[in-house]
Amino acid sequence: MATTNDIGNRGEDIAAIRLDEAGYEILERNYRHERNEVDLVCRQTGAEEYVFVEVKTRSGTGFGAPEASITEKKREALQHVARGYLHEHESEGAPARFDVVTVMLTNGAPEVHHYENAFWGG
User: Do residues 96 and 119 lie in contact, with contact meaning Cβ atoms separated by under 8 Å?
Assistant: First the structure.
C-alpha cells in the first residue's frame, strides 16, 4: 500500500512533468527555508516571473478536494518560503506568483489541474 509520502512524491513528479511540458523551467524541487517548504520553484520560458507551486495530491475524496487543503496558514508559510528564496537568490522585488497544481490519483490516468495565481502574496 502506498504511503502518504509515496502519493505526494508521485503527484509532485506528475506536476513537474506537466509544468515542463507547458513551458515551465523547474528551478528547484522541495525548496526549504527555515521550517517551511515549497514543492516547486519555476519560471515560464522567457519570463522573469518566479512561480512558487504547491502540489496537492489525493488518491480519493475522503479528505475533500486537494485544493481545499491550502489553508491561510499554508499560504503564509509559502509566502515566507518565497521571500526566503528571492532573498537567497538576490532577487528581492522580482515578480512572483503562487500557483497550485492538484493531482487526483484514481484507477485511470491522473487528473491534473493547474491553478495559476491561486492566491495573492503578502
Answer: no
| CA dist 72 → 22, 119, 122 (Å) | 28, 10, 11
Q: What is the pLDDT of residues 9-35, one digit of tens each?
A: 899 999 999 999 999 999 999 999 999
Q: Give the residue numbers spanning the domain of 11.
A: 4-119
Low-confidence ranges of the chain (pLDDT < 70): 1-2, 61-64, 121-122
List helix spans (H) across the chain: 4-21, 72-88
| Whole-prediction pTM | 0.90
Distances (CA, A) of 39 to 52, 107, 108, 109: 8, 25, 24, 22
Tally of domains within the chain: 1
CATH number of the domain that residue 60 is part of? 3.40.1350.10
Distance CA 79, CA 121 (A): 6
